[in-house]
């Protein structure tokens, strides 16, 4: 591994077999449709066109296709190139991407994300359509492009049973079939997935139209810490592991966010504000590692 292949500026980062790769939260195909962005201001365009996620963090579990499936006949863990690999090498060689989709709207996880973002981007009734699109890009990336730890952990016995090695960009040349390495991967993915939730939750909390969709635990910590997402997240982490009375934790095995492809963000906000019933565009805070893992994103 090359020493310059660092995924983060965080102190203690460990070199891995890839450098930092970024994935657009909003599909390039959508960004290229000029009529979608008529009237956009410079700052809005900067936020929207620069909305990206580290590819290393985009990892998910594929369950067995049937109860009798033999280990090695399907890919129990996969992700966006080059997050999960069959060889600890750079580039696209050995990338395991099952479930990602074929690049078309509606195909796989990436296609579901594109449908969700497109519905919001094309909602002309929204007073803040460009901001909504940026927010939805993050919400849909959280829901569709990575799994929570409760679901990723379901892959562990299947990964351990694989006949050949698996590697993750986040954990370098350590075989994911080893329990400690797999656990480290799950912690890394969980850290980033939750961090995105606190960051987008802060954006929504600062918007009167969207703030009703911020889930209660995240909202309470943002309220207590000046809507500063990283400060609020660290306070939640501290209380989770040290407080006598611990905060409520979302332990749903699957993502409990609603299907984001059927309504625009503005439609969800309108329903929330008119009925008083929160539309689940964002799920509440989940478990966090005691400390941020070494290859997690720096501030």
Secondary structure class reads mainly alpha
Most strands sheet: 2 strands, antiparallel
Radius of gyration: 19 Å
Distance linking N and C termini: 25 Å
Q: Can you tell me the residue ranges where pLDDT is under 50 for at least 5 consecutive residues?
A: none
- SSE string, helices as H and strands as E: EHHEEEEHHHHEHHHH
Number of helices, where a helix is a run of at least 4 consecutive DSSP H or I residues: 10
Quaternary structure: single chain
Mean pLDDT score? 95
| Fraction of residues in H or I helices | 25-40%
How many structural domains can be distinguished in the coordinates? 1
% residues in beta strands: 5-15%
Describe the protein in words.
It contains 10 helices and 6 strands, in the order βααββββααααβαααα. The protein has 299 residues and is mainly α. The chain has one domain. The longest helix is centred in the middle third of the chain and has 27 residues, at 179-205.
Main attributes?
299 residues; mainly alpha; two-stranded antiparallel ribbon; two-stranded antiparallel sheet; 38% helix; globular
Short characterization:
38% of the residues lie in helices and 5% in strands. It is built from 10 helices and 6 strands, in the order E-H-H-E-E-E-E-H-H-H-H-E-H-H-H-H.
Give the topology.
Layout: E1 22-24, H1 28-31, H2 42-49, E2 52-54, E3 59-61, E4 77-79, E5 84-85, H3 108-121, H4 129-145, H5 149-152, H6 156-160, E6 167-168, H7 179-205, H8 216-224, H9 229-242, H10 265-275
Antiparallel strand pairs: 1-2, 3-4, 5-6
Helix pairs in contact: 2-4, 3-4, 4-7, 7-9, 8-9
